[in-house]
Backbone:
């Protein structure tokens, strides 16, 4: 839930809004989508998500941890160098889109 329209005129309101959007984003991400994408990448059906440190490293592995406030934190992890990528909504939506396309094609 975002209260932008009511509180955009104050810096405090903007902060509230940013936090609300952030929580919403975290809640709508589903680790299973990343896992599914990872499985497709293992089968060479999609491009792997590369390591941000060394593109020669194997693709990033999805992980889920629970923080002290019981929030799900999803990140993608490089087994070779411990690089961590915290996916944003844009990456998530791209993955969702690709998975939907693949599933439509598999039904044919
Ligand atoms: Zn790496």
Residues:
């Amino acid at each position: 839930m975002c209260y932008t329209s009511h509180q955009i005129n104050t810096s405090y309101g903007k902060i509230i809004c940013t936090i609300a959007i952030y929580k919403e984003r975290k809640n709508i991400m589903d680790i299973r989508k990343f896992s599914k994408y990872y499985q497709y990448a293992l089968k060479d059906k999609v491009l792997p998500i590369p390591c941000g440190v060394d593109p020669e490293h194997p693709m990033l592995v999805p992980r889920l941890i629970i923080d002290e406030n019981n929030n799900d934190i999803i990140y993608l992890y490089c087994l070779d160098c411990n690089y961590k990528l915290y996916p944003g909504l844009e990456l998530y939506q791209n993955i969702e889109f690709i998975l939907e396309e693949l599933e439509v094609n598999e039904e044919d």
About this structure: Residues 29-107 form one domain.
